[in-house]
Automatic annotation (TrEMBL):
GO terms for biological process: amino acid transport. This is Amino acid transporter, transmembrane domain. The chain crosses the membrane at residues 57-79, 100-132, 152-169, 181-202, 222-240, 261-281, 301-325, 354-374, 380-399, 411-430. GO terms for cellular component: membrane. The keyword Membrane applies. Residues 28-435 form the Amino acid transporter transmembrane domain.
Length: 452
């Protein structure tokens, strides 16, 4: 069991004995490395879900929520970085979200609360990444061999094997080159998918467009909150302190530069994918827009070479995303199982690392195959995971550390965000779980189709 922090949550003299810090969260990076990590953590193939999220909101509310979420998360991540910088200047450099929250809020239960939420995020993203990768492979396979016998879970197993092999990369910092490639891949498949959507929308085979929402008011409200939760998950990070931990000290100011890089890519990719996909398919958008572009019946709606290349780019980036979101789990494992004195690649540390990381990936792959609810999983993870860590805790931590005057604009902006997104998270969790329940009748274990 992970030990809660002491009064000095992470004293400098203990870091040399902490394998999670020394091995997984080694601090050697520059600001642009943090930008690569942030972009991989946020700008992923989940943007292919944005048209699906828009179908529960419509044009106006969809644009509004996408923009508000972007502004609030940038503000939130900036505040989180300032809190980390503040603690570092006081001689307490935190490299883990759970220790930062426990130290600032002075509560042992907060330590375990953050562990629980981060575990939910890591596992949820791991499951979603493997499921989406398997689904993309299935899409490509179905078009090449319509009568083939392979099922979705076969492709999920293939992806899981690859992830097991890549999971053995030992440190977060060692992913910097992979995550730079991930940034380029995200731009690549976004441009390809946007181009494919424009091609499909202007072709003679363009699908009929219907942007109407659910006819019943209650269903419309639930769909809207599910969509909001999905957008929150797409913007979510939940591991910013661990990313900032990879920066060579002093880390002050470096993370803001990384955030500027990340949000430049977000602006280009999020809006173009959401607008083009929803413009073509409207309320028939599927949870993976590639499924809409390559329907089960009839020909593909765009050149197959462009769609095939987009699928390849998506698959390659999913490997990086799976690695990034596994780092917190690996850090916890390493802290408990490794011995710093034996060295990173010693037999004593290598064998437990291989075994534990393999088991973790197998668990993610198993649940991805068993529960193919990609869109629904995104909503639940966003509501119970990303909203608390990215929309609530940063504001609370900033108010606790910097103590803005209760009459100041900053204080009231922070409190307003806390209240609004607490309510949004609760309603989003309820509506997302409700949709899971409603989808049960469509679902069977190890189905070969992803349920929308």
């Amino acid at each position: 069991m992970v030990e809660p922090p002491s009064m000095d949550p992470f004293p400098e003299h203990q870091r040399d004995e902490d394998a999670g810090a020394v091995f997984v969260l080694e601090s050697k990076g520059e600001w642009w490395h943090a930008g690569f990590h942030l972009t991989t953590a946020i700008v992923g193939p989940t943007i292919l879900t944005l048209p699906y999220a828009f179908r529960g909101l419509g044009w106006a509310l969809g644009f509004f929520c996408l923009t508000v979420m972007g502004v609030v998360t940038f503000y939130s991540y900036s505040l989180m970085s300032k809190v980390l910088d503040h603690c570092e200047k006081q001689g307490r450099r935190h490299i883990r979200f759970r220790e930062l929250a426990s130290d600032v809020l002075g509560s042992g239960w907060m330590f375990y609360f953050v562990i629980f939420i981060q575990t939910a995020i890591n596992t949820g993203v791991g499951i979603g990444a493997i499921l989406l990768a398997g689904d993309c492979l299935k899409i490509m396979y179905s078009n090449l061999s319509p009568d083939g016998s392979l099922k979705l879970y076969h492709f999920i197993a293939m992806v899981t094997v690859v992830m097991i092999l890549l999971s053995q990369l030992p440190t977060f910092h060692s992913l910097r080159h992979i995550n730079f490639a991930s940034l380029l891949l995200s731009l690549g498949y976004t441009f390809l998918v946007v181009g494919a959507c424009i091609y499909a929308g202007l072709s003679k085979n363009a699908p009929p467009r219907d942007y109407s929402l659910e006819p019943e008011e209650a269903a419309r409200v639930f769909s809207a909150f599910t969509s909001i939760s999905i957008i929150a998950a797409i913007y979510g990070n939940g591991i910013l302190p661990e990313i900032q931990a990879t920066l060579a000290p002093p880390a002050t100011g470096k993370m803001v530069k990384g955030l500027m890089m990340c949000y430049s890519v977000i602006f280009i990719t999020f809006y173009s994918a959401a607008v083009s996909g929803y413009w073509v398919f409207g309320n028939k958008s599927e949870s993976n827009i590639l499924n809409s572009l390559m329907p089960d019946e009839g020909p593909a709606l765009a050149p197959t070479w462009a769609l095939g290349l987009a699928v390849i780019f998506v698959l390659l980036q999913l490997l990086a995303i799976g690695l990034v979101y596994s780092q917190v789990a690996y850090e916890i494992m390493e802290k408990q199982s490794a011995d710093v004195k034996q060295g990173l690649f010693s037999k004593r540390n290598l064998i437990p690392r291989i075994i534990l990381r393999t088991i973790y990936m197998i668990i993610c792959g198993f649940f991805a195959a068993m529960l193919p609810f990609f869109g629904d999983i995104n909503g639940v993870v966003g509501a119970i995971g990303f909203i608390p860590l990215d929309f609530i805790l940063p504001m609370l931590l900033y108010n606790m550390t910097h103590k803005p005057s209760k009459s100041s604009l900053t204080y009231w902006i922070n409190m307003s965000i806390i209240v609004v997104f607490t309510g949004t998270g609760l309603l989003g969790a309820f509506s997302s779980v409700r949709k899971l329940v409603l989808d049960v009748h469509k679902f069977k274990l190890f189905s070969s189709d992803v349920v929308d």
